[in-house]
User: What shape does this take?
Amino acid sequence: MQPLDAASLKEQHRRVRDGQTQHDSTRLHRAISWLTRAEQERDDLDARFIFQWVALNAAYACEFNDGETERKRFRGFIDTLVALDREKSLHNALFLKFSGPIRTLIANKYVFEPFWAALRAHDPSERWKQSFAGSQRAAMAAIINNETGTVLAIVFDRLYVLRNQLIHGGATWNSQVNRHQLRDAVAILETLVPQVVQIMLANPDHDFGEIQYPVT
Assistant: This one.
C-alpha cells in the first residue's frame, strides 16, 4: 500500500482534482499543504500537533447552516467519512493500531473539558467526576461495539481540549506536563488526518460543501 504521506496525497490530488468541485479541490490542496508542513516538524511536538490540526480544519471546514453548531457539523463530517471509508482505514486505526493510546486518552481527565470548567468555576461538588465516569463508560461501550463514528467523535473531542490549551496559550511550549498526551495525540493525528484526506480524495464525486474562505 502506498504510504500516506503528504507527497503521495498530493499526487493523488493531482489525479482527481479536475473531477472535484472548486471548493473541495481547494480544501484538500490546503489540507495537504499543512500536512506537508507538519511532516517537517520532527522534534517539536507542539508545532507538529498544531499543523496537523490546521490540516484537519482545512479538510472539513465549510459554511455553517442555520442552527448548526461546530460540534454537530464535525460529527456529521465524521459520519460521512465513516460511510465513505470502504477500506475501513479509520476503523482499523482506532481499534487495531491505536487501541491503547485511545483508551489512555479517554481516561485522562486533563483532556476532559468539564474538569477544567469545574476548576475555573471553583466548583467543590466534583460533579465533573460523575460526568467523567459516564463519558468513559460510553466510550468503552462504543469501543466494545465497534462504533467507529462514536469513538472518532470522542477522540477528537478530547484532542480538541488539547488543541485549545495550545492555541489559546493555556500550556507552556515544550512543557513536560503534557508531553505524554501530546505525544499520543501527534501519533494519532499523523495517521488519522492523512486517512481523512485520502477518503475525501477517493470520493471526488461527493460534495463536502462550500469552504468559508474561497479563492477569489
Remarks:
- The chain has one domain: 6-201.
- The first helix runs from residue 6 to 16.
- The mean pLDDT is 92.
- The two ends are 37 Å apart (CA to CA).
